[in-house]
Amino acid sequence: MLIYKEKHIPVLLKIFLIYIIICFLPLSAYSLEPEEILVVVNENTTGSVALAEYYMKKRSIPLKNIVKIKTGNFESCSRSTYKESIADPVRKFILSNRLEKKVRCLVLMYGLPLKIATKSPYKEDIIFLENEEKKYFERLKKENPGSRKNIENKLVTIKKKILDLKKGETSASVDSELALVIAGKYPLENWIPNPYFYEFIKSKLIIGKDKVLMVSRLDGPSLKIVKSIIDDTLKAEKLGLKGKAYFDARWVAPEENNIKNYRLYDKYIHNAADRVRKSKRMPVLLNVLGEKNKNIKYRDVALYCGWQASGQKIDSISWQKGAVGYRLSSNECSTLKSNENRAGCKIILEKGAVVTTGSVGEAYLQSLPVPEVFFDFLVDGYLTVVECYMLSNPFLSWQMVLIGDPLYRPFMIHRK
User: Fold this and answer.
1) Is residue 298 part of a domain?
2) CATH at residue 273
3) Which residue, 68, 103, 142, 232, could crosslink 321 as a Cys pair with Cβ 3.0–4.6 Å?
4) Distances, alpha carbon 360 to alpha carbons 53, 182, 372, in Å
5) By mean pLDDT, which of 123-137, 235-249, 264-278 is the weakest?
6) Using alpha carbons only, how large is the chain's radius of gyration in Å?
7) In sequence order, what E strands does 300-389 have?
8) Of 372, 378, 373, residue with least CA distance to 354
9) Are residues 261 and 396 in the same domain?
10) What percentage of the chain carries pLDDT values higher than 90?
């Protein structure tokens, strides 16, 4: 269930804003170089070190830039395990080698935990309320328009109770937490504003860009799939990413400026489709759910973004080599390994895409990467995929994970 938390992003993007951002970022924020990357591997996972060395050789990353740690080979770990066996060794490596101003990105290899889990004292209450929420959603579908108001008000009340119980949440993705590994002490409850996010560029935040590392993950259901991600990325970068761009929206794009919640993010999807269309990189198909294109076949997909409502299509999408895509939904990266959970990121990687992003838990709508920003910078071709992600991702110390080679620039060869 994707929840909208009462702290929405109220400002619609304007075309000029995307490019004005460049004026406010230092030149060092662009063109990530191989020597600026540290690769983190888990020596307790068979094949992790060898895969890391393979990747580093392919990308000309100095072999001295490998951080070997020993931690549990599980997708979830405790806060203490994260601190003692992941964060502390990585921080020590950076500080002891005086790399604070030289390293800008961490790559987490196959075999590292995904999530820092915490136990809520109100877990049973939250589960009960979430089940109640599902029941009312089912009732809402069956009610006629005249009698929906009471149910909608009840849903608002339930959501508020859930959010109140979840206050003080300290769970996060390992990746999002490691972005702040050299930031010193900061509040663990909820999220920290990302200083690279386009809306925060000129803001004074508790943590500045000089204390934030970009983080990406080369991970997936198997070592074989991760190796394919590495190889397919390089091939697509060399030959150019071909195919079509597909975007799934819920509604026809609204013309009014004062929109929020789901309609705001739906507008972002429309705008992302428009950005890619104007770039002339590839054909663009925008599907408005319930409209004439609802039976569209997703073939030769190079770029994709859409809502969970289109989830039934995710298994049938035919991805191009080097494809990039993600869904606007929580828990899309709750697992990359379990065969019992068909999380969106896992499926996307199994089907052949090389870059995706998702949350390890309930992320709340406004913490998901803004599609308009991500895809606009991606098709522009100047920035690497991890830089596009950082500009579009609002929060750190939170739930999001980026999977893919951070150096990937699928449209680099088209620059004139």
Assistant:
1) yes
2) 3.40.50.1460
3) 232
4) 27, 23, 22
5) 123-137
6) 21
7) 301-307, 319-328, 356-359
8) 378
9) yes
10) 58
